[in-house]
Amino acid sequence: MSENKNKKMVRSFNGLTASEWASLSKSVWNDVSSPREWYHIEHGATFSVALAERAIKIYSKIGDTVLDPFLGVGTTLVAAKNLGRNGYGFEVYKKFYDITKDLLSQEKLPLTDFNPNIKIYNEDCRNLLRYVPEETIQLTFTSPPYANFIHRSVKDRRETHKESLLVKANRSVVKPYGDDSRDFGNLEYDDYLKEIEALMKKIFQVTKPGGYNIWVVKDHRDPQNGKPLIPLHVDIANVGEKAGFIWHDLIIWDQNAQRKLVVLGYPSVFYVNINHTFLVVLRKPQLKRDKK
Ligand SMILES: C[S@@+](CC[C@H](N)C(=O)[O-])C[C@H]1O[C@@H](n2cnc3c(N)ncnc32)[C@H](O)[C@@H]1O
To answer: Of 74, 91, 119, 206, which is most buried with the most CB atoms under 10 A?
Structure first.
């Protein structure tokens, strides 16, 4: 067999052809919005199915298993099911777990022959080792609560921005998920990062060697307390590295087309509108020599 023919038969780890691989390799994604249904608005902090599908296509193949420890209304696992991947998900609030269960039970035309096995739990994700076997996860794709930032931002909007475009033009639906003490959204930032690090260690245990762990996070501001920028994406990457992952890539989800610009800090301090979210791509080392 000629060398060229041999090359053509190479199978990529995700099943993509070389041209699909190249076309998905943009570092800024601005084409992954999908329609918002009532349950996305009900939840208030979801990402799009198109975003999850893009990541799942890139970082896993049909028949692999995907994990979302912070399930919300199940966007990651809906995307996993659509693409023939197995899945595990954890959600602490029953109201969101029930919506996910409902969405996953809806029959759709399968896009693949593989019939995925999806398991969801109305549970604290800190208990994931009870349910997920070691070294079985190819991809974790998740968006965590941002510590107690939602509580702060709700207060801020109530007191300062209630008439502003930030609330009106962008149809902001920011609201806390609830008051459950297990909810990472009710933690102070320092405690939050400690809990995230402990969770990262568990995710490391269940991830296959060479598997990926992607966190969808937005940076924040707290100028009243002397912090014009809280670089959450860097902090998440750092705790991921402490847990053993390698910071592998950084993708920007550009949301400018979905959001109107608002005036911030005028006329004394200039701030940009943070209209992008980061995908922090971490990877478990594959071979001993990959380890630091
Ligand atoms: C940013 S939302 C995720 C939204 C999700 N990506 C979607 O598109 O539906 C974070 C979710 O984590 C949940 N959560 C918070 N603490 C948790 C915990 N300890 N275990 C499991 N879920 C938790 C919250 O209730 C919330 O629904």
So the answer is: 74
